[in-house]
Amino acid sequence: MRLRSPAVFAFFVLLALSFSPASARDVTLSKGTAEDVGMSSQRLEKITQAFSREIAEKRLPGAVILIARDGKIVYENSFGTLAPNGNTPMPKDAIFRIYSMTKPLMSVGLMLLVEDGLVELTDPVSKFLPAFKDVQVSTPEGDVAPVRPMTIQDLLRHTAGLAYGELTKNQKVKDAFIAAGLAKANVEYDARDLTGPEEVERLAKIPLVNQPGSLWEYSLAVDVQGRVIEAVTGKRAGAFLAERIFQPLKMHDTGFSVPQANLARVAAPFETDPASGKSFPVIDISKEPGNDSGGAGGVSTAIDYLRFCQMLLNGGTLDGARILSPSTIKLMTSDHLATLVSNPQAPGELLLGSKGYTFGLGFAVRLADGIAGVPGSAGEFMWAGYAGTYFWVDPREGITAVYMTQAPSPSRSYYRKLLKQLVYQSITELRN
Predict the structure, then answer these.
(1) Which of 95, 259, 342, 399 sits in a 20 to 30 Å window from 247, CA-based?
(2) Are 291 and 192 in contact (CB under 8 A)?
(3) Model's pTM, two decimal places?
(4) 94-298+320-344, superfamily in CATH?
């Protein structure tokens, strides 16, 4: 289309900028109608139909789903029961173990210290945690010194050479994680019995699985981010996040344990996963842990996490509370793996069983409209949790979405993809 006047051209420029994550528009979350923001309420009901069916057929224990566009909550629903063996309907303010959805929270916390001028992305981790100064790298020929130190940027993009004992193919490192209490046979992704200093001391004695900066490897790096925050601030990581993120954003039920008074709102999983026939015990969040695990220790509600997502979409602000600069969010949601060797299990494969995603600083980032086997837009960013939780932020379409459940199961990627499909098919007006 030919633009016939400077005024028309300016209008379209402003329209494009209004959906940019760097525009820093403080859009307040409120309830709205789908039709007012270019979506179909009738089509959104397909979400209700699909997830009600899964609950009725006992493939999911329960869930809470929130979808917003342009700050308008257009879909809010809860499904099933709070506990599979109980009769209490799932409340919309149910509390969930969010596991790896803790990671973006901790990564934002670490980037706050970058904004404060107390940390630089190129700083070696050993500057703040000296135990990592002498860490070695495991190779087939034996342990060797790293070519260069792991950096703060490496922690944020999972290129530090660290591992998860539950995931690594390096048997020597896996055995060392188990021996150090950093991985357990009975409860996965639970190293919260250790204090922060104990975790650092034990982890630093285990060889890295890759040279720092060479490969994307999902790992305990975000736990280490928390230890860096503690070393820099002198505060427990959870207390720092509460002060700088949770309280300003009114995320009242987000933290690393659940007070006794709120335990009645904690969602529970099946005792036996119906998809695999196996048991997947979950972490105990009824008491304060030994350390605030940035990788897997968080708890939250759907509305709390949606507020966090909307802050990111707004360019770092919500309801007058400025958390981050839009330039920081732009940096965090950019591709930080472009020059690195590809890992067979890249971010998209890990979460969705799909290619098309790279990694930024704390988030998986979609590279293009195509490639991925799920709907979405270039620039969309996301992450998920071991117990089935999932979120994404689509700056181009103005969408934030949160899916909360307690279903640690091999089928979790199916439900994430299902929800994405049903959200995008409900759009009637595209923003591109």
Answers:
(1) 399
(2) yes
(3) 0.93
(4) DD-peptidase/beta-lactamase superfamily (3.40.710.10)
